Amino acid sequence: MKKIMITGALGQIGTELVVKCRALYGNDNVLATDIREPEADSAIANGPFEILDVTDKTRMYELVESFKPDTFMHMAALLSATAEKNPLFAWDLNMGGLMNALEAAREFNLQFFTPSSIGAFGPSTPKVNTPQVTIQRPTSMYGVNKVAGELLCQYYFEKFNVDTRSVRFPGLISHIKEPGGGTTDYAVDIYFKAVREGRYASFIDKNTFMDMKYMEDAIDAIIQLMEADGVKLINRNAYNLSAMSIEPEMVKEAIQEYYPEFELDYEVDSVRQAIADSWPNSIDVSCARAEWGFNPQYDLNKMTKVMLEAIEDKEKVQS
Length: 319
Ligand code: VAH
Description:
Bound molecules: (3R)-3-hydroxy-L-norvaline
CATH architecture of the largest domain: 3-Layer(aba) Sandwich
CATH class of the largest domain: Alpha Beta
Radius of gyration: 19 Å
């Protein structure tokens, strides 16, 4: 992995992935692409950037032909709640974009990464310590896209020998780019509201356990998986990943260590609650640990400290 093209570079993961890859592989060796322009003074604008709608195969191929990457990281996708509001558009974007990206990887012989999600599981999946290989019958459009994506990536590996690699991300928590349209977003919003307003109304109900992970651990996992010895990757499409299984009251208590007055109440959103209820409570990550050394560094308390401190710093700069 030396020259990397990334789609969805302005998204929640892309924003931090581009910066990390540029730091590791050199600024000019990472082409960031997205459907809109980055802000002029942003980190993304600080290196190669091109506009790309991932459903436009011709434009995608043109960029691959001119930049000549050896690795393609396909991050552009709609998240679960947005996909549920507009399922047909989600199918076109999530699956159309993925097919174009996989085809580019096949034709130009590129190593390939795209994220799957715990959204690839459904109500009939074992809910606790969900195994790596298990029932996958999701009930959301996002989940349907993710299962199909995992299967397509595996198909391209077996049939066309494309070096596809993927992970099932849990909810990802970051203070850099706020997510949009995800079911797990409450666990990001809660920190921003704690610092800014001292209270938060969660759209996910108490006692709803979901897997989560701090973004730095997620980015490190992508790099580690892509650099891993391919021979050892038995479950390459896609590995269960998680660093914590949490519910809103646990986050509240962690925040109250620093903000004792913080108040949490609930305004549950039925669409996102239904999606959350269909996902596992906690997943088993032993295959990722065994096959390529997945080893997240942040638990809830450590993550809470860095999230609150980073958001406080942001607020100071803005005031
Ligand atoms: C979502 N953050 O909520 C995403 C995700 C596991 C959750 O894939 O849609």
